UniProtKB/TrEMBL annotation:
It catalyses: ATP + protein L-histidine = ADP + protein N-phospho-L-histidine. It is an enzyme of class 2 (transferase). The chain crosses the membrane at residues 12-32, 177-199. GO terms for molecular function: phosphorelay sensor kinase activity. Its main location: membrane. Residues 277-488 form the Histidine kinase domain. One of its GO terms (cellular component) is membrane. Keywords: Kinase, Membrane, Phosphoprotein, Transferase, Transmembrane, Transmembrane helix. This is histidine kinase. PROSITE patterns: HAMP, HIS_KIN.
């Protein structure tokens, strides 16, 4: 993360520097170009003034045909340190007069002749290792000229001079150096400023956040970011703090939940042990008492009033015995004896027994059994016990009458096949607040209930890798769904389950 934000800052810096260099560079080049143009224009103006001066100086001498004086003027002017030469050449390319007397009669420099022939007034060229501005003025024939020249000669000659550009070049060099220096300083100052801002306001807080994130990643949820500025990164730090707060709360809740679950499991384990012990202690004396009371009951005549009291005691002893048996089952369920079982068969047998139950009278019973269900590998007695308990609960929930619907089907989920038994009743249903509790041992809403039935069901299905679901809406009955894996022989031994309500 730290490397990542260093790379980000580097990228932003490179981008900024490039933009600055291109932007300021273009601006500087544009101004340099203008400055150069200006300096050359000034040189051209000076040369122009000089050329006019020479023109005027030789005008009289030319009118009077005094060529000697013309030569003297040219030589005088040509002595100036900034001038290379001053000359008059014939349009045919011959030098007529020149401040360099040796060039008189020689062919004029081709570049000067070219300027004239192209009709251009000035041009720049290099000679004697120096740069010169050549500027020309055409001498045309006038009325005074016919004394020495032919009447049809329109152009009598070309007056030209070579002005040195060394000073202009020097000024240009100084200006360029000044521009380049100031541009460089500007770029350096701007880059330094931007880097400082980026490092202080972006890289530092981001680096701090990245460090804290690593600490959180390693499990330290006590860390919090201190927002350095009230900007987007400050908001990010606050968001980070809120996120860590939430994480810490979630972890606390999870720990509490885990702790409760452990406590619950512990309690269940001890309850199971205690229940088994108590059930053992109760069952043997109960058997003795029951046998004794039966003997007593036989001693009374049929119409003896005391016989009905004794028989009622026998019923209560039978109920106590069932509770003790349930406790034993819950505390130490017997090892399942697996075999291939046809679930439709098992449903049929269970419903037959349930039909004998006193509460079955008012209830309409319906059965929808799926064809060709694969056999399941289960302990038939235990699964029948589960189904029987759920059916009896349903019947008891419909004391005032209703409909019991038992259905079987083959269900496929996550590439696995499950044989399903659904037991639906039209009783009062289960209130949402009891959803969690009904599978807890000893939770019962019945005066004669033990609250162990569904807890035992869940335990037995665990042994079969089966699942138990419950759906219910108050006033609309309850649906209990048992799912058993339709796996090949032996694969559904204990190892995990999903029992609960939806
Ligand atoms: P018991 O039947 O001894 O009460 P169970 O564990 O079998 O114990 O059931 C626990 C509780 O679940 C019942 O007391 C009842 O309140 C609720 N219950 C179970 N089945 C149904 C049902 N079909 N309709 C309404 N309530 C039910």
């Amino acid at each position: 993360m730290k490397n990542a934000d260093v790379r980000l800052i580097t990228r932003i810096l490179i981008f900024n520097v490039t933009l600055l260099v291109v932007g300021i560079g273009t601006f500087t080049l544009f101004h340099l170009q203008r400055e150069r143009q200006h300096l050359f224009d000034v040189s051209r103006q000076h040369a122009d003034v000089l050329l006019s001066t020479v023109e005027r100086s030789i005008a009289n001498a030319m009118c009077t045909g005094n060529t000697e004086e013309v030569q003297i003027v040219l030589e005088l002017v040509g002595n100036s340190p900034h001038l290379r030469k001053v000359q008059i050449f014939h349009p045919d390319g011959r030098v007529l007069r020149s401040s360099r007397a040796t060039e008189i009669g020689q062919p004029v420099d081709v570049r000067d002749l070219q300027l004239f022939r192209n009709g251009e007034r000035d041009g720049i060229f290099v000679a004697d290792n120096e740069e010169w501005l050549s500027i020309q003025s055409v001498i045309r024939s006038g009325s005074a000229c016919i004394v020495c020249h032919e009447a049809d000669e329109e152009v009598l000659g070309v007056l030209g001079l070579h002005v040195s550009l060394a000073e202009t070049r020097e000024q240009l060099r100084a200006t360029t150096a000044l521009f380049a220096g100031s541009t460089l300083i500007m770029v350096v100052v701007l880059v330094a400023g931007i880097s400082w801002v980026l490092l202080r306001f972006v890289q530092r807080p981001l680096g701090q956040l990245a460090g804290l994130m690593t600490q959180v990643e390693q499990g330290d949820l006590a860390v919090r970011a201190k927002p350095l500025h009230n900007d987007e990164i400050g908001q990010l730090a606050l968001g980070f703090n809120a996120m860590v707060d939430n994480l810490e709360n979630a972890r606390k809740q999870l720990q509490d939940y885990h702790f409760q679950q452990m406590e619950h499991a512990d309690r269940l384990a001890s309850v199971g042990e205690m229940a088994t012990g108590v059930a053992h202690e109760i069952k043997n004396p109960l058997a003795g008492i029951s046998a004794a009371i039966e003997v007593l009951s036989e001693a009374f005549d049929r119409d003896d009033e005391r016989k009905s009291v004794v028989d009622e005691v026998l019923v209560q002893i039978a109920r106590l015995n069932k509770t003790a048996t349930d406790l034993l089952h819950f505390g130490r369920p017997g090892r399942p004896e697996f075999s291939h079982v046809d679930i439709n068969d098992l449903v049929g047998r269970t419903l037959f027994f349930a039909d004998q139950h006193p509460e079955a009278g008012n209830v309409e019973r319906r059965k929808s059994l799926a064809d060709a269900l694969p056999p399941v590998w289960v302990d038939a007695k235990q699964i029948q016990q589960v189904l029987f308990n759920i059916v009896i609960n349903a019947l008891q929930a419909m004391e005032q009458g209703g409909t019991l619907h038992v259905a079987t089907e083959l269900h496929e989920q996550d590439g696995r096949q499950w044989v399903r038994i659904r037991v639906a009743d039209s009783g009062p249903g289960i209130p949402p607040e009891a959803f969690e509790q009904i599978f807890t041992p000893f939770f019962t809403t019945k005066s004669q209930g033990t609250g162990l039935g569904l807890a035992i069901c869940r335990r037995l299905l665990e042994e079969h890798r089966g699942r138990l679901f419950m759906e219910s809406r108050p006033g609309q009955g309850a649906v209990f769904t048992i799912e058993l894996p339709a796996d090949p022989v032996g694969n559904n031994a204990k190892g995990g389950d999903d029992c609960g309500q939806t």
